[in-house]
Design a protein that fits this description.
Elements (H helix, E strand, L loop, with lengths): L10 E5 L3 H7 L4 H21 L4 E8 L7 H24 L3 E5 L7 H14 L6 E8 L1 H17 L10 H5 L12 E4 L18 E4 L9 H12 L9 H5 L4
Parallel strand pairs: 1-2, 1-5, 2-4, 3-4, 5-6
The structure holds 3-methylbut-3-enyl trihydrogen diphosphate (2 copies) and magnesium ion.
Magnesium ion binds next to loops.
């Protein structure tokens, strides 16, 4: 297979995990792990843009992360706000379109404004489609979609029997881009932690023990190689997929 034929993911979804452990290993506060994790995030966004990956979705804060100590939550919010302010201009110059998925009404006004600004500023960009999942939960996403369809049915605009998978897919977050082809979780845990539950139905899953602050373009290349080696069958037989009769 020539390099040009190597299967590449159009959409990569990442759970950026392991900041706290990275800091602990160094005897530093968790804050320094999040700070280091932010630098990795910046590098990986740039790397994906350079490598012409179409879409990148990053899990930055889950709907369950509110359960962390208030000081850590506050610190993450501060970091998030600072990161948005410092990065959006450059992302825009690099033709990145940024948007946020999740329930943003829970955030302080200032943060919500910055998120809206970033989305507005970059909305016409045609390069990397970057989605940041904040106060996001896969179950929330599914319930939200169900609620939207139920409202339409209640208002007489929709026959409940007409609801099918495609219609449902049209109501969850990121409905306008292909579902993730490749999922990456750093930090060693092999779980989904309420990430894109609907979207990951047929995504290839890559888990690495590398902690997020240590993740690099080299690790990304390893994940892309893993992806290139997978045969995606979507329920068919291998022979059907390769077109051989064996
Ligand atoms: C991921 O790193 C960042 C967020 C969840 C915000 P963690 O903070 O979960 O790091 P560990 O899992 O404790 O090492
Ligand atoms: C998942 O990591 C959420 C993010 C990376 C934002 P967690 O560290 O919150 O996941 P669990 O609690 O170990 O499952
Ligand atoms: Mg964690």
């Amino acid at each position: 297979m020539s390099a040009s034929e190597t299967p590449r993911p159009r959409h990569v979804a990442i759970i950026m995990d392991g900041n706290g452990r990275w800091a602990r290993q160094r005897g530093r506060p968790r804050a320094s792990g999040h700070q280091a994790g932010f630098r990795t995030t910046r590098d990986i966004v740039e790397a994906c843009a350079r490598q012409r990956i179409e879409a990148l979705t990053l899990f930055a804060f889950s709907s369950e992360n509110w359960k962390r100590p208030p000081t850590e939550v506050g610190l993450l919010m501060d970091l998030f706000l600072r990161a948005l302010k410092s990065e959006v201009g450059k992302l825009c110059d690099n033709n990145v379109r940024i948007r946020f998925i999740g329930e943003r009404s829970a955030f302080q006004q200032k943060l919500q404004e910055e998120m809206d600004n970033a989305e507005q500023l970059t909305r016409d960009n045609t390069g990397l489609q970057l989605a940041i999942a904040v106060n996001y939960g896969g179950r929330w996403d599914i319930v939200n979609a169900a609620r939207a369809l139920a409202r339409q049915a209640r208002d007489g605009q929709l026959d409940p029997d007409a609801i099918d998978i495609d219609m449902f897919s049209g109501q969850v977050s990121l409905a306008d881009i292909p579902e993730p082809d490749l999922f990456i979780r750093t930090g060693g845990e092999k779980r989904i932690s309420n990430y894109l539950l609907w979207h990951l139905a047929y995504t290839e899953l890559f888990f690495t023990d590398v902690l997020w602050p240590d993740f690099s373009e080299t690790e990304l290349a390893t994940a892309l190689e893993f992806y290139a080696g997978r045969q995606r069958r979507f329920g068919q037989t291998g022979e059907q997929v390769t077109g051989s009769n064996a």
